[in-house]
Amino acid sequence: MPVKPQKAMVLAAGLGLRMRPLTDTMPKPMVPVAGRPLLDHVLDRLADAGVTEAVVNVHYLPDQIIAHTADRTHPRVIISDERDQVLGTGGGVVKALPLLGTEPFFHVNSDTMWIEGVRSNLVRLADAFDPERMDILLLMAPTASSIGYSGQGDYSMLADGTLRRRREHQVVPFVYAGAAIISPKIFDGAPQGEFSLVRMFDKANEQDRLFGLRLDGVWMHVGTPDAVAAAEEALLESAA
């Protein structure tokens, strides 16, 4: 049976160093793209996928995010305050687990955007997630057609969606698009404090419980000021 996550975690605590000077005075999730903050684009996607509560972690210039999301109801935003500590992408989720509950949840980076294909990619993730076989299902974008990305990829993907992590000096065809469904049980035994979420990806991979789903549409990594302009141009072209 497909899962229907009601909750999500949105990573919004990063310093946004590569986005300077835009992030000198605002946190990266508040950087506007096509007239709206990155964070709103993500929350809108989650609302469309049926999410009712989104846990948003904050660290850098947190009051701007807290104030901006205070009145939001679709989804309702719960703040996980990390202003006094740096927890990383993995440690941030561990801190938020009591708010996320025991069921699989969406996990989305606040700087990820995509132009949808025929169906919502988050809904497609929910339909494809099989808790009997999977602990983590990643949305994977083809590197060749992605906007704002110039790396060597993250994973290769087998026909059944099984992922194989890129080895050093290897080039692979898929990059993690910053959206996933994660079962909280993968964090059993996870460390406290700062660590990268990649550690949990590797754990699931070692147990053959890490899978991927190819994104339908065009992924945009909005990580630099130049990438903002490229994303806006792509959005305009897609709406034409």
Description of the structure:
The protein has helices spanning 38-48, 62-69, 88-100, 121-128, 198-206, 225-239; strands spanning 7-11, 32-33, 36-37, 53-58, 76-81, 105-109, 112-116, 136-142, 155-157, 163-165, 174-182, 210-214, 217-221. The protein is an alpha/beta fold. Strands 5-4-1-6-11-8-12 form a seven-stranded mixed beta sheet, sandwiched between helices. Strands 2-3 form a two-stranded antiparallel ribbon. The protein has a two-stranded antiparallel ribbon with strand order 7-13. The protein has six helices and 13 strands. It is globular, with a radius of gyration of 17 Å.
Report a brief summary of the structure.
By secondary structure, this protein is α/β, with parallel strands linked by helices. It contains 6 helices and 13 strands.
Features:
240 residues, two-stranded antiparallel ribbon, single chain, 7-stranded mixed sheet, alpha/beta
Low-confidence stretches: none
Question: What is the CA-CA span between the terminal residues?
Answer: 38 Å
Percentage beta strand = 25-35%
Largest sheet: 7 strands, mixed
The class by helix and strand makeup works out as: alpha/beta
Helix content: 25-40%
Number of helices: 6
Query: Given the C-alpha coordinates, what overall shape results?
Result: globular
Layout of strands and helices, then pairs:
Blueprint: E1 7-11, E2 32-33, E3 36-37, H1 38-48, E4 53-58, H2 62-69, E5 76-81, H3 88-100, E6 105-109, E7 112-116, H4 121-128, E8 136-142, E9 155-157, E10 163-165, E11 174-182, H5 198-206, E12 210-214, E13 217-221, H6 225-239
Parallel strand pairs: 1-4, 1-6, 4-5, 8-12
Antiparallel strand pairs: 2-3, 6-11, 7-13, 8-11, 9-10
